[in-house]
Design brief:
single chain, Ubiquitin-like (UB roll), DNA polymerase, domain 1, 5 helices, 15% strand
């Protein structure tokens, strides 16, 4: 079946079987390798994408359910030349080591700050709860998200 999605600002049509999961379509058909295959049961957050602004585990979404949706991967957030404040502050803090969790963590934090630019430290902690980081821990990640939020609000950081 054909499914059409807006991915990172571009309309894309792909062929998918009814049993294909969104992770496989994004990685195997569209070569968006920031969407990681982790646990494949929705526990780790490595496959997190934004669908219509909400963070979801793409390993749990059958591809046909994404038809007509707007999807954002980390490639749609920023790049090395034009970093989103989240990317900038996480990099400056040395918050990630291996980077496996980084795309999902950033997308989850972005969704939170888009909804709630004044998110408390506890709100940040609650939001990223489903994104597992095995290398760095969470203190630097939480601090960097708070700094990014302040910058996004126009405050001096």
């Amino acid at each position: 079946m054909q499914i059409t999605m807006n991915i990172n600002g571009k309309d894309v049509t792909v062929h998918a079987r009814p049993t294909d999961v969104l992770t496989d379509i994004l990685r195997d058909h569209l070569h968006l390798y920031s969407v990681k295959r982790g646990c494949e049961v929705g526990d780790c957050g490595a496959c997190t994408v934004l669908i219509d602004g909400e963070p979801v585990n793409s390993c749990l979404i059958l591809a046909p359910r994404a038809d007509g949706k707007t999807i954002v991967t980390i490639e749609g957030v920023g790049d090395i030349y034009n970093m989103h404040p989240l990317q900038k502050h996480l990099k400056e803090a040395g918050a990630f080591q291996c980077g496996f969790c980084a795309p999902g963590m950033i997308l989850t934090a972005k969704a939170l700050l888009d909804r709630n630019p004044n998110a408390t430290r506890q709100a940040v902690r609650d939001a990223i709860y489903g994104n597992l980081c095995r290398c760095s821990g969470y203190v630097k990640i939480e601090q960097a998200i708070q700094k990014a939020a302040a910058e996004m609000r126009g405050e001096e950081v």
